[in-house]
Write the structure tokens for this entry.
Amino acid sequence: MTTESLMAEPRLKGRIAKSVLAGISVFVVVGVYVLVSSIDLGLWTSLGPGPGMFPFAMGVLLVAMSVVWLFQELRNPSETPGGVDGRLVIAVVVSLAVLAAVLDLLGFQLSMFAFLLYHLKVRGRRGWPSSLIIALAGSVGAFYAFNYGLNVSLPTSGIPLLNSIGL
């Protein structure tokens, strides 16, 4: 082996990077916190699933997926990039803040449609047809699934004209 080939090989070959372990640990801690907190809400009532059942299931799923991720990393460690794209982090945080700010004014359907369309078309550079279909399904589909399927009310528009047409 030459010196050049030794330098080209990653030093952490066969070992999990500390940043990946930190990420897995954070997901496990959050999942366990959700599990413990959801038990206090009550998992079951005399009428069926209680308010803590859904968060409990999500906590179990989060911990299970973190364990699967850990096993995948032990089997085949991923190569981590040199750093985090700060512009991407800022774009996501700002778009989430805008989403939270306009949710009550525009309602869930329009706000989530704009949020998804931005991330799919602008950030993800997807084509118009797939971006529009996914954003529509993710916003309107989720709204109807929660409002009518699960009986969980999501915000409607605070603008009377938009509210009158079902947005």
